[in-house]
Amino acid sequence: MNDQITEDVKKYAKEVLEMDLVGIAPIERYADAPPEFHPQQFIPDAKAVITMGLVHNPDMVQESHINKAKSVVEIHGMNTENLCAGYKMSRYIQKKWGYRSGATGLPVHLPEAFVKAGLQDIKGALKPAVYFSVKMAAVHGGLGKRGVNDLLIHPEHGSIVRLVSVVTQAPLTGDPLSDFDSICDTCDRPCMRECPTGAISVKQGDPYTKGSIDWQKCFNLIGNEALMLGYAACLQCASVCPHSKQVG
Ligand code: SF4
Ligand code: SF4
Q: How many domains does the chain contain in total?
């Protein structure tokens, strides 16, 4: 039965929602996660997390730290598409299979008061009681690993992917974890070299990622207007990663 629901959910993601990527993480993979990141904070007794994604058109995100206009539209469009996909997937599982589900993890539009205050303290201003990491969900769902750029690196499409997750009580079968562990080991790190703000640093000994981003620097670079459109980063660190390739 679990395999039947899993197959149906994946088919819906690929064929109806036209998602490029889909990976499923059984809840057991969150056993060692920090409690505030646990998906059961969102849906009690959640059994799995489905992470879906779209792959960027590389032409639209190249040099996006210089030509913001083209990537704003690209990112805004993909976030909207992902938001709809997550919402539709949640409703589909609830209506067809009777399991409570909810979409989460999309970039949120920043509170107006915070933007007016001039981006003084992003973490302090947002202060969520519950966190959700789509990148953690993607790794637990077998979609790749997190590199020095602290983004998901998918084996075929690298970091030019945008993600949304659905937390569900459906008892879905998990995808195998990615064995893409050697990412970054032999790379001369263009993500760090070409970041216009020097926001990236290497992280060692962290089970979840090989790098860290000072997001305040990204936000300061792109400006308040772009932030209000949901354009949270310039994406140079994603587009220069040698793993980043488009669909087809
Ligand atoms: S550019 Fe190189 S070091 Fe940076 S995330 Fe990609 S593979 Fe890793
Ligand atoms: S870390 Fe931020 S500023 Fe640097 S390339 Fe990535 S998105 Fe741009």
A: 1
